[in-house]
Design a protein that fits this description.
- The protein is elongated and about 70 Å long.
- A hairpin with a 4-residue loop joins β17 and β18.
- The chain is built from 1 helix and 18 strands.
- The relative contact order is 0.18.
- The longest helix has 4 residues.
- It folds into 2 domains: 181 residues, Reeler domain (Immunoglobulin-like, Sandwich); 90 residues, Immunoglobulin-like, CATH 2.60.40.1930.
- With 284 residues, the chain is an all-beta fold.
Length: 284
């Protein structure tokens, strides 16, 4: 992300006094793929000061509960960049799963300040032209929403890079870059179900990793509808492997997933009338 300041000279009539004012002007919008996430650079790609060396800070906060996110819920997110005396800030942030792919959905809530851009398939929230300008120097808070994935995909990490510009008209060491990350996990099954009675226990998936067939073993505590689903690492439903009434008892299901799906990380979910549980699967 590049930021530029331009000098404006004005005169005050009657006093003959020259006032030199520094008006913050962004040189460009934010750039995707500069959050400092695995495999990415950050703002120091253009702004040469060492990262996290300028005496300022960056932080991420949200209203995601302490026990984790719940599927399809929209949460409020904020990123605050602080630097004494600075009145122009830049932002790049993305949400990734443990496979370094998009996790959930980023949503712009203030189109005058931020927008969505994509780099290497990853969605970023970045600053708009002049979207990071503040009237009172010192800090800027950017806000956006995040919709959790449709299912539990494990940990989600928000990677953010912030830029504080010094106003010398150059993309140099005077512009300070800060990076941080913020990891959230999925809410426990008990939390999602509001502590309802558990009907599936002793869940096991083997072999895992698997090169061809995989066995899903579980115990059903009571009769009822059982649905078994396969999701990708982004939380997208790929296939309903089974959906029918089963009697209480112990079961082992066998699936040849490698015949239809590429190597990668997947999630198998078991749903009953009062429970959703699951297990991560790695196909080699």
């Amino acid at each position: 992300m590049k930021i530029k300041f331009s000098k404006i000279i004005t005169t005050t009539a009657g006093c003959g006094l020259l006032l030199a004012m520094c008006a913050a002007v962004l040189k460009d919008d934010g750039i995707a793929g500069r959050t400092g996430a695995p495999g990415e650079t950050n703002c120091t790609n253009c702004h040469k000061a060492a990262v996290n060396s300028g005496g300022g800070s960056i932080s991420i906060s949200s209203n995601i509960p302490k026990d984790g996110y719940k599927p399809n819920i929209v949460y409020k997110m904020t990123v605050t960049i602080s630097q004494t005396g600075v009145s122009l800030f830049g932002l790049g942030v993305e949400a990734l799963n443990d496979n370094n792919s998009n996790a959930g959905t980023l949503i712009v809530t203030n189109s005058g300040e931020t927008k969505l851009l994509t780099s290497a398939g990853k969605t970023n929230v970045v600053h708009q032209l002049n979207g990071g300008q503040v009237s009172t120097p010192g800090a800027k808070t950017f806000t956006f929403d995040w919709k959790a994935p449709a299912t539990d995909i494990g940990n989600v990490t928000f990677y953010a890079a912030g830029l504080a510009a010094n106003g010398d008209t150059k993309d140099d060491a005077g512009d300070k870059t800060y990076t941080t990350k913020f990891t959230v996990s999925a809410a426990s099954v008990a939390s999602v179900l509001e502590n309802k009675e558990i009907s599936v226990t002793n869940l096991a998936l083997f072999p895992n990793p698997s090169q061809d067939n995989v066995n899903l073993r579980y115990e059903l505590k009571k009769d009822g509808l059982v649905t078994i689903e396969l999701y990708n690492a982004n939380g997208d439903l790929l296939n309903t492997l089974f959906s029918d009434i089963k009697n209480a008892g112990s079961y082992t299901e066998n699936y040849n997933l490698k015949a239809n799906y590429a190597s990668g990380i997947y999630f198998i979910k078991i749903k009953t009338d009062n429970q959703i549980t699951g297990h991560t699967l790695i196909l080699e």
